[in-house]
Amino acid sequence: MVVWALGSAVGLLVDDRVLTGAPIWAKPFKFSVSFVAYCLSLAWMISLLDEAGPRLRRTVWWAATVVVAASAVEMVLMTLQVLRGVRSHFNGATPFDTQVYSLMGNTVVVLWLGTLVVAALLWRARIADRATAWSIRISTVLALTGAGLAFLMTLPTAEQQRLDAAGVEVLERGGHSVGVPDGGPGMLLTGWSTTGGDLRIPHFFGMHALQLLPLLVLVLTALAPRSRRLRDERVRVRLVFVSGAVYAAVLALLTWQALRGEPLVHPGTATLGAGALILAGGGLDE
Questions:
Q1: CA 222 to chain centre
Q2: Contacts of 194 (CB under 8 A, 6+ apart)
């Protein structure tokens, strides 16, 4: 995936084609960088199972291999469509495009199931530091939830449903934007919509709990020698639980905001109020 990210970066520099309002190589670049973080996190977590029995190690090896293979297939298909100059996702323009999109969807399901197996084995793992153990358990649940939110993008949009009802042929199925067409004005770097809801936001936020919660534990552990309270393992575990609860609440809020067609950068009163309640609840728990 590092090599894929470098290749996609070269594509961004030398290929000036634009697709749905973004450089055509932006999607494989973002996906490959995301996979780097995702797979490094899983690899570190799997390394904590070294003390497990041979049967458990064999099972996790196969599950991890499935994740690797599915990730590679996903990137091959995405890059193929970039080379052809067409969309990889939501594309039903031709029978071939429909088959590619369907195969990508099935590959994602396989990847999700492989990660689920790894997560289940990690839940059973005996990890000496309880704060680390709970950060891994909570983060895998959040990551699987965030990955599962991608299913919402495959559902027909309101406009596609209207065209279907009118008997008009629809060449796209699903989309990441809510309330506005894909490819409109977007945020710098991420491309997330600034005029409507965007389901990529909770999808991204949920998946990267896999890095953020364990990173929190590493920071707490590094600060422990300087803080008497943090040297207490119970305090660190409590902080992990509170952070996990706040993270889950923010994930729910981002999903709710996107489904209402509200841009991340223009939150309404309801969103701001809910966000304030989450922050207040997290602060009180602390």
A1: 27
A2: 184, 185, 186, 187, 263, 264, 265, 266
